[in-house]
Design a protein that fits this description.
The protein folds into two domains: 206 residues, Alpha-Beta Complex (Quinone Oxidoreductase, Chain A, domain 1); 123 residues, 3-Layer(aba) Sandwich (Rossmann fold). The protein has ten helices and 18 strands. The strands form four sheets. Strands 3, 5, 6, 9, 10, 17 and 18 form a seven-stranded mixed sheet that branches. Strands 13-12-11-14-15-16 form a six-stranded parallel sheet, sandwiched between helices. The protein has a three-stranded antiparallel sheet with strand order 2-1-4, with no helix packed on it. It is globular and about 65 Å long.
Length: 349
């Protein structure tokens, strides 16, 4: 592949609304030493795409600052963290045998080498992503899933949503037979939490809006609580013994109401703030019951490898809500922002 070849991509040149997503022709990236070039088969959308585009992450000491996931972005930036596709070429020092293999890319930019590294950046934010025909990635972060029965669309839904979900479940030390509460249950991470928790043998109580109850139950929730009514009361009725692990992407008032529902030694894992980042709770409910509040941002390399094992044997079936061509990225993001769907939205370059 010549260095001058071009590809179709969608990029942002600044923060703003869907109108800042610009279709562009840009050079096909050349894999450096230790990297591979992936031809994108499918790219899934995430809330982080919206928040990165809007600059909605804030900064330490300045919660209202326009910022990407971990600070200022370099523009122009090609968005898209979640890629499934085939290896088209490899850089120096990479096994040629990878060419032609079907892969999923771990989109995290890690702080260090090693199995328990922390993500400090994200493909599509801190480096160019998959809203394009091709993307490069470190060979160590490309996982061969050629044998998986899942489709490219389903595989593309895994990295951010299912990676985040598995990170929460692992950090929350969820065990078979425990009762979990899943908030934001109709979203991408919510559905992933339900499916992985069920695959692990947990009892799942999900919080969702009334209109999506059926779809959330179909995803595998044992009980669904309507977030429009007395949430704490409904959870108590569904789990009179209490909750072992809260898996929460909403925070806000739910966290204050939910902590007293934890059993002795319970864990409340929070990985999002859809309901608001300013949280108040009764700290006595924490220390008197040896409970823990755990922050969880995405996954470690160990978590991601575990996720890929689950994908190879199709331990769950990701739900695809809608598909769009790449040139309709703005429409796809608007659809995501409306939150009318259950499951994941995917684009095809």
């Amino acid at each position: 592949m010549g260095a001058t070849e071009t590809m179709r991509a969608v990029r942002i040149t600044g923060h703003g609304g869907p109108e800042v997503l610009e279709p562009a022709r840009t050079a096909v990236p050349v894999p450096r030493a230790g990297e591979v070039l992936v031809r994108v088969g499918a790219v899934a959308l995430n809330n982080t795409d919206l928040w990165t585009r809007e600059g909605a992450y804030g900064r330490p000491g300045d919660p209202e600052a326009l910022s990407g996931w971990r600070g200022p972005l370099d523009f122009p930036r090609i968005q898209g963290a979640d890629v499934a596709g085939r290896v088209a070429a490899v850089g120096a020092d990479v096994d040629e045998g990878l060419v032609g293999r079907r892969v999923v890319v771990d989109p995290a930019v890690y702080d260090t080498e090693g199995p328990d590294a922390n993500p400090v950046g994200l493909m599509g934010s801190e480096r160019d992503g998959g809203y394009a025909e091709y993307v490069t990635a470190p060979a160590t972060q490309v996982h061969d899933v050629t044998e998986s029965p899942l489709t490219d669309d389903q595989l593309a839904t895994l990295p951010t949503a299912y990676g985040t979900a598995l990170g929460m479940i692992e950090r929350g030390r969820l065990k078979e037979g425990e009762t979990v509460l899943v908030s934001g249950a109709s979203g991408g991470v919510g559905v992933a939490l339900i499916q992985i928790a069920r695959a692990r043998g947990a009892r799942v109580i999900a919080v969702s809006s009334g209109s999506k109850t059926g779809a959330v139950r179909e995803a595998g929730a044992h009980e669904v609580v309507d977030r429009g009514r007395d949430v704490a009361g409904q959870i108590r009725a569904a789990a009179p013994e209490g909750i072992d692990v809260g898996l929460d992407v909403v925070a806000g008032d739910l966290m204050g109401e939910g902590l007293p529902l934890l059993r002795e030694g319970g864990r409340w894992v929070v990985a999002g703030a859809l309901g608001g980042y300013d949280v108040a709770f009764d700290v006595r409910r924490l220390y008197l019951h040896n409970a823990q509040v755990i922050g969880s941002s995405m996954h470690t390399p160990t978590h991601f490898a575990l996720l890929m094992d689950l994908a190879r044997r199709a331990a769950f079936q990701p739900v695809i809500a809608a598909t769009f061509p790449l040139d309709q990225a703005a429409r796809a993001q608007e659809e995501l922002a409306r939150r009318g769907h259950v499951g994941k939205i995917v684009m095809h370059p």
